[in-house]
Amino acid sequence: MEAGEGKERFLRQRQVLIFFVLLGIAQAASEPKHYSVAEETESGSFVANLLKDLGLEVNELAARGARVISKGKKTRLHFHRQTGDLLLNEKLDREELCGLAEPCVLPF
Predict the structure, then answer these.
(1) Signal sequence span per UniProt (predicted)?
(2) Which domain range does residue 106 map to?
(3) Alpha-carbon gap, residue 60 to 79, rounded angstroms
(4) Distance from C-alpha of 25 to C-alpha of 81, rounded to nearest angstrom
(5) Co-location of 20 and 73 in the same domain
(6) I need a surface site. Which of 7, 56, 78, 86 has the fewest CB within 10 A?
């Protein structure tokens, strides 16, 4: 009887361990990405390739409905679904966007 209880306890401990390992992996994979763009970078400039950064295929981006969502009416970034490229829609002016705030961070 004790051998059966020991095995059952071991299996429960293993399940808990696996749960926490999977939870840690899921949280690590869902971390937000941060990108930097120099002030006065021209419109149409390359920012990042989301396919490479997220480790996805083109068809996965389309299936997930990938898009850029911005606060306000201006869309400062353009996402090209066929290539995964994230591009600037317009030249960014730091003073206009952030004033004197340090650092100047725009959430998307």
Answers:
(1) 1-28
(2) 36-108
(3) 14
(4) 27
(5) no
(6) 7
